Structure formats: structure tokens, C-alpha cells
Amino acid sequence: MTHLDGNVLAGVTSSLFAFDLPTATGQCDACGDVASLAEAMVYGAPLGFVVRCRNCSGILVLLVERPGGVRLNMRGLRWLMPSATDSHPPAATPEAARFS
Amino acid sequence: MTDSAFAWRQGRLALSATLSSSARSLTFDVPGWPGSQPGQHIDIRLTAPDGYQAVRSYSLANSGAGERLELGVERLPDGEVSPFLVDELEIGDEVELRGPLGRWFVWQPEETRPVQLIGGGSGVVPLLAMMRAHADARTPVPMRLLYSLRSPENALYQEELRSLSDTAATTWHYTRVAPEGWAGEPARLTADVIRAETLAPESDPITYICGPTGFVESVAHELTRLGHHPDGIRTERFGGA
């Protein structure tokens, strides 16, 4: 199976973060490359996703979906920074629901 | 999960049209759908009788307000979800979906940089959403599309792309079979074609590339070699080719 990219993580990580993960910037712990998570290489697996650095192919993030929740392993990221321009809520969020 | 953007909701197939022998346009009515931005996608989840679930992402062909969303889906030969969407789903049927998703591969009508779109195959779908929004916004910002496809029969939204040419012109490129009268021989998108048919780095464009993984990576690589700054290149890959 060919890889996809980090855009595909928007849905599965939407319950984990208050920001859009593909739009966030991160640094690879292995090689130091800095990029949007959207640019990472993403391999689908039966139970989740393997997210690899676009530069060195090192594993940045492991995402495992199980009944009852998502487990996130981010040991391959030195840091993660949400985009400064990504401060607005998604168009789909009704104001009333955000506080309920 | 109370955040409605990310909750699974029901979409009912309201309209459908054949786009090619392997692709279909599907328009869903989604109660509570709050609209989307050009370039965003949704996840669709199918559940088998035994409980097995498959989730796949599909780009939206439309954007803006309203409770209707439109997809353009190409059947992948080994796909788990796309053959069902292209061949099986009937008007009135419901699927589970969530979105709108993604804020990276998005074009904002307020954007002032010239826009180059480069699509491979059904990768044209989110780019069409941008072209429609661009036409609706009546913005003076230049936008154009380079559309690479295997043969004329594989063209999606051909008539609509031609009708949008006043606001965003399309350059057609054929990799296997070309229509009569097309200048040149069918070939993969080379550096020469990319240089001749896309906005130059000097105009500081923002370039959106969507298509199969290999296509996206080779085009992005060539653009970088031509002198485009990586910050001005946005990519979205899909599998299956």
C-alpha cells in the first residue's frame, strides 16, 4: 500500500486536539526536519496510522484506534506547535455546542 | 463527543451523476452541516454487518454555507469504500460522515497571492472547490489549473472546468492518450511542461497539488527545483495509483 500524507489525520485526531493537527508544525526527533504534519508520510494500518518524517522516514507518531478510544504515541516528535493562523474554530462548530 | 464538527452524522444521498466510467459525483443532504472551506475533506465510515468498520477520506467539491455537500469519487480497484460509493449507494441511502476536516490544504478567498492548481486524475476535486469559490468571490487574484489525466475519457468536470475558464483557465495535459488536435505527445508531466504551464516562482504563487502519491511527489520536487519556495507549495496525496 502506498502512503498518504498528514491531511488524512484531521478526522481521527479531531477528538484529541483543539487545533487542526495537519496544520500544526513539528520537528522530527531523529533528523531535526521541521514541517507541517500535513507533509508527513502516513501509512494506514488495520488498527491505525504510522506517521513518518518526510525527510528521514523516522516514525513521528503512532496512532492506534481501539474500541473505546485512540492511543497516541508521539515520541518521534521533538516538539509540536499549532499554527498561529489556525486560531479560528472549524466552520462546523456551532457556538452553543462548544461549551456543552 | 459534543463538538459537532467531529461527531459522526448521517448524510443522505440526494443527487448523483456519472463523471466518467470510473467516477461519480455524489451530493449528500446532511442535517446540521455548517458548510466548509474550499479544499476541505470529510471522513466516511462504513460498518459491515459483523461490525467491521472502514473509514476513508474524500475531498469536497463544493464549499460555503448550506446543508449539502458534494463529493467526486473515483473507484479504486482494490478499494474497500470507493466501489460501494461509486457503484452501490442509491438515492436516499445514508452513510456516516464527519467534517469538514483539515485546514492546511485550504484556499481562502481573502488570499492575495496568485494561485496555481495542479491536479492529477481525481485529485482535481478539491481544486474544483477552490475554482468555484474563486469564481463566486469575484476576486482579481489570478488562479489557474494544470490538469494531468490519462486520457480524455478520464476527465472529470470537463464542461464545468471549461465554463470556469473566464476566472480560472485550465491547461489540459494527457499522459497516455490525447484527444485529436492536442498539441504534443502524451507523456508524463515533465519539468519542461511544468515550467511552461505554471506560474513562475517570480510571481510568488501559492501552489496546490493534489493527486496520487507519486504524482504529487514528483511535481512538488520539480517545483522546488524550478525555484519555488517550499512554503508556497501545499500538497494532498491519495492512495490507489
What do these coordinates show?
The complex is a heterodimer of chains A (100) and B (241). Chain A has 100 residues and is mainly β. Chain A has one domain. Helices cover 8% and strands 37% of the residues of chain A. Chain A has helices at residues 9-12, 95-98; strands at 4-5, 25-28, 34-36, 41-45, 48-52, 59-66, 69-73, 77-81. In chain A, strand 2 (25-28) and strand 3 form a beta hairpin. With 241 residues, chain B is an alpha/beta fold. Chain B has two domains: 9-101, Translation factors (Elongation Factor Tu (Ef-tu), domain 3, Beta Barrel), CATH 2.40.30.10; 115-238, Rossmann fold (3-Layer(aba) Sandwich), CATH 3.40.50.80. Chain B contains five helices and eleven strands, in the order βββββαββαβαβαβαβ. Chain B has helices spanning 82-88, 124-137, 158-163, 191-197, 213-225, and strands at residues 9-20, 23-29, 41-47, 53-59, 68-74, 94-101, 115-120, 143-149, 168-174, 206-212, 233-238. In chain B, strands 4-3-6-1-2-5 form a six-stranded antiparallel β-sheet. In chain B, strands 9-8-7-10-11 form a five-stranded parallel β-sheet, sandwiched between helices. The longest helix of chain B has 14 residues, at 124-137. Chain B is globular and about 50 Å long. The model of chain B has no long low-confidence stretch (mean pLDDT 94). The interface between A and B is medium-sized, with 31 and 36 residues.
CATH architecture of the largest domain in chain B: 3-Layer(aba) Sandwich
Large-scale geometry of chain B:
globular
User: Taking all residues together, what is the mean pLDDT of chain B?
Assistant: 94
- Regions with little confidence, pLDDT below 50 for 5+ residues of chain A: 90-100
Indicate the CATH topology of the largest domain in chain B: Rossmann fold
Distance, first to last CA of chain A: 40 Å
List the secondary-structure elements of chain B in sequence, H or E: EEEEEHEEHEHEHEHE
If strands are numbered along the chain, what order do they take across the biggest sheet of chain B? 4-3-6-1-2-5
Tell me roughly what share of residues is in helical segments of chain B.
10-25%
Task: Report the top-level CATH class of the largest domain in chain B.
Answer: Alpha Beta
Strand content of chain B: 25-35%
Specify the biggest β-sheet of chain B: 6 strands, antiparallel
Number of domains of chain B: 2
